[in-house]
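Fill-in record for Acyl-CoA dehydrogenase.
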Amino acid sequence: MPITLPTGDDHSDLRDAMRDLCSTYDDAYWRRVDDERGYPEEFADALTKGGWLAALVPAEYGGSGLGLTEASIIMEEINRSGGNAGCVHGQMYNMNTILRGGSPEQKKKYLPKIASGEWRLQSMAVTEPTTGTDTTKLKTTAVKKGNDRYVVNGQKVWISRIQHSELMILLARTTPIDQVQRKSDGLSVFIVDVKQALSSGMTIRPIRNMVNHETNEVFFDDLEIPAENLIGEEGRGFKTILAGLNAERVLIAAECIGDGYWFVERAKKYGSERIVFDRPIAKNQGVQFPIARAHVNVSAADLMRFKAAALCDAGEEFGAEANMSKLLAADASFEAANACLQTHGGFGFAADYDVERKFRETRLYQVAPISTNMILAYVAEHVLGMPRSY
Ligand SMILES: Cc1cc2nc3c(=O)[nH]c(=O)nc-3n(C[C@H](O)[C@H](O)[C@H](O)COP(=O)(O)OP(=O)(O)OC[C@H]3O[C@@H](n4cnc5c(N)ncnc54)[C@H](O)[C@@H]3O)c2cc1C
């Protein structure tokens, strides 16, 4: 169901609608899902049925055709309400790879069903255990057999939400690295039918981790993929996949902003109510200043998020701002998390207060989907023009 919004407003209608939806899924809901290490099925269903996850899919394919600004507000509000958009955010941005790199036939085949939620494209498989951030050295291969298929062998790690996806984007090497001019050449992107792959050469092993985040090791043993599932040109996959990653960074930044405001709000409330030495603890500057500073930094990161999203929506280059917003927002949300935990004293560690859960959730974004050091390396090299460090 496409969403219709008034244009040129301050997005209060969008925020109100999201707050209304999120209010059904309260702290107790997210605590229970976290406790059970479960998947928030009801929440994901409600978002899908409301059309929120199809915000970025163009209207001609059944989506809402909204901008990155609106999409980022949707993600922000989920985290600001105390929830965790990490369980669903892939559905919002992974389709970018098809939208930007797919053929007209592929767009027609996949996008309407992704928009309706019939097919979930929550998963993207890039990271590998032996090469990590050095993506172009990845070792998973896709070798063409005849004209009609590729055979995939290799291993991925940290592949999220695959158990809750019908489709997965896969990055694999189609030409050996020693036979290409640039190391980013020779990589290709495929769309994988998860169910079919699980019965013919792909296996998954869940990774228990610090957050309640469904993520997995994935193994490919002679998995055959139809040649028609190649997205974009063979050997140009790195570029195809990169095209969607800047939008992902802005959306993750927005989730961090949502977390940041949640921490500040909770810290302010608890600090103002908790009486020790016969007065609210927030009356002490040693308690209130870290909360105030966190608010300052979250608000500043928020501006960079809106700048990056506005550039994207205007069709301008936004790589630098996307990366900077992700770094600023991840740092600000973790600073806010720390201040909030400290304000709560011992109770910050009690699951019933939700602070420790949100603390774990927001910590992830210093590492994934791109670590802080890699953003600094990007800014140093591409924005400031300093020599390459790797
Ligand atoms: C919960 C979770 C979910 C994830 N989901 C997905 C997913 O769905 N799909 C997917 O493909 N990946 C996913 N990832 C992987 C994630 O993107 C990577 O973990 C991340 O990019 C870092 O890669 P790495 O873990 O291999 O770290 P490494 O590359 O081993 O790096 C380790 C540390 O060293 C630093 N480092 C490395 N090289 C340098 C250098 N030259 N200079 C300075 N610092 C350096 C890094 O910044 C990092 O802090 C997920 C990860 C997690 C934890």
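KEY FINDING: The CA atoms of residues 291 and 385 lie 36 Å apart.
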